[in-house]
Design brief:
- The protein is mostly helical and 118 residues long.
- It has two domains: 1-44; 52-118, no CATH class.
- The chain is 91% helix and 0% strand.
- The chain has three helices and no strands.
- The longest helix has 50 residues, at 68-117.
- It is elongated, with a radius of gyration of 21 Å.
């Protein structure tokens, strides 16, 4: 699992560099981000599901599987995972929006430079 996280991190870090060096369109970069975000989301969902199953099995071993406190802690854990997921989606959207804005600013500066030099 650590290798998957490392590969995904490398992909996320390399995508802006890749876009800058090969001068691909912003749409291609946006699609790459979308694919990376989907992969990251699925990875975290799998990790969260594993943590939830681990907690449930721990409660079962302790004989607390139908206990009110165990149900509350399992529900709290699920809620926390959903909160993290929502926050991460918001952060990704903010990051991508900032990148789009920066690309438009660079393009505008290049256009202005061309007008001034002409």
């Amino acid at each position: 699992m650590k290798k998957t996280v490392m590969a995904l991190s490398a992909l996320l870090l390399a995508s802006p560099v890749f876009a800058a060096t090969t001068q691909v369109t912003d749409d291609v970069v946006a699609d790459a981000h979308k694919g990376a975000n989907t992969a990251k989301e699925k990875l975290h969902q799998t990790q969260d599901k594993g943590a939830e199953m681990k907690l449930k099995s721990q409660h079962a071993v302790e004989g607390k599987s139908n206990n009110l406190s165990s149900k509350v802690s399992e529900g709290t854990q699920r809620t926390w995972h959903k909160t993290k997921e929502g926050t991460e989606k918001g952060w990704d959207a903010t990051k991508e929006g900032t990148e789009k804005g920066w690309n438009k600013t660079k393009q505008g500066a290049a256009d202005l430079k061309n007008k001034v030099t002409d």
